[in-house]
Design brief:
single chain, transmembrane, mainly alpha, 13 helices
């Protein structure tokens, strides 16, 4: 079924093929993610009705598992973990084969930009084959995936902060009326959006004074937002930092705050909004998938792993790091679909990244992003002997 789609990349221009390849991997990754969601939400009855899978799910000897009950091996979340494991191995194989591939003349570039039919066949075969591997291996993979997903979030934060600085520096360097207008308008919109998120957090997730943890998260976010502005007045701070950079980081961290609080199980501190809550879950679900796909694509081709120099015939991005990021993203998607915990409980079709563990992961990511940004601003003051230009 994927054969015709996977054969569209051709041509002699290496850079054009690299562009086609990155979009092809991203599209295929998104398709596999959607299929994983469908099987997680609706696949368990179908697996148990199938003769082969029904035998496997009810036969402990066939399962070869000492950690989970055999019937749990065909639960929706277990299928999500198996698909994630297969996808992760697919990209890790590419990472190993393409390790340190940086030059256009490297013959291994073709492994990244061609052989699409065989790659899709290997990927699809892995997705099916990993449904039958012992459940104990999946248990260990799930624990490893927690760390891999955390590493993916760290890379995303670093890339986001780097991107904000690049945008701010580009607008300032133009020194035109429209660029300064964009800077001021963008800063106002970002700070306004961040304050709106904090206001919504107070309304929906701090319904009484007894919600001390939520009140701490929200109020501390407001304090850090003020610190992001105050740090801009520090003498000799990073020159490329400005109101726009602080505003974008404040808005993003405010989003992480609301997202983290929304991951909480329904309790006395969460305002029940009925159908509004359902629509928020649906929109948030698709936004989460789109955000992961976009973050993976941009991070995989990011300059933080090295910038391609055309004069030196270097590739515009490193294929090995591109595939490593996709492998980490596969682990992250597994955590989203399993709510960061190994459980056999069925998941609501629109539930993704829910539970107390998910909340703490998002809050921790938010704190890391805030500390990372504040440190980059004041680093020239602390490490005054280093050149940060």
């Amino acid at each position: 079924m994927l054969g015709p789609f996977c054969c569209f990349s051709s041509g002699a221009d290496v850079r054009r093929e690299l562009t086609v390849a990155k979009w092809a991997y991203c599209i295929l990754f998104t398709i596999v993610t959607i299929v994983t969601w469908l099987l997680r939400s609706f696949g368990e009855p179908a697996f148990k009705q199938n003769r082969i899978f029904a035998y496997y799910c009810s036969n402990p000897a066939a399962a070869g598992n000492a950690v989970l009950s055999s019937s749990a091996l065909c639960s929706g979340q277990q299928v999500a973990l198996r698909f994630s494991f297969a996808t992760c191995c697919f990209f890790l194989l590419h990472f190993v084969l393409l390790f340190w591939c940086k030059k256009e003349r490297d013959v291994r570039v073709g492994l990244h930009t061609s052989l699409w039919f065989w790659k899709c066949l290997l990927w699809a075969g892995g997705l099916v084959g990993f449904l039958f591997i012992p459940g104990e291996a999946i248990f260990y993979y799930a624990n490893i995936a927690r760390f891999g997903a955390g590493l993916f979030l760290v890379f995303v934060m670093i890339e986001m902060v780097t991107w904000v600085y690049d945008i701010n520096e580009a607008l300032v360097s133009k020194d035109t009326w429209w660029s300064w207008t964009a800077l001021v308008a963008g800063s106002l919109l970002c700070f306004g959006g961040g304050l709106a998120c904090i206001g919504a957090a107070y309304h929906y997730y701090a319904t009484s004074p007894s919600c001390s943890l939520n009140l701490f998260f929200i109020t501390w976010s407001l304090v850090i937002g003020l610190a992001m502005v105050a740090v801009l007045f520090v003498p000799n701070r990073l020159e490329v930092a400005g109101l726009l950079t602080s505003g974008v980081v404040f808005l993003y961290c405010s989003y992480l705050l609301v997202s983290g609080l929304s991951s909480q199980p329904i309790n006395g501190c969460v305002r029940d909004t009925g159908m509004t809550q359902l629509w928020m879950q649906i929109v948030g679900f698709f936004l989460a998938i789109a955000a992961v796909a976009y973050s993976t694509l941009t991070l995989g081709t990011s300059h933080i792993f090295g910038t391609g120099d055309e004069d030196k015939q270097e590739l515009p991005y490193r294929p090995d790091m591109f595939h490593l990021i996709f492998a980490l993203a596969s682990m992250y998607m597994a955590m989203l679909f399993t709510n960061w915990q190994l459980s056999t409980n069925p998941s609501d079709m629109w539930h993704i990244d829910r539970g107390w563990v998910s909340m703490w992961v998002k809050i921790g990511s938010k704190w890391f992003c805030e500390v990372l940004y504040l440190w980059t601003v004041i680093a020239p003051v602390v490490c005054w002997a280093r050149d940060f230009s």
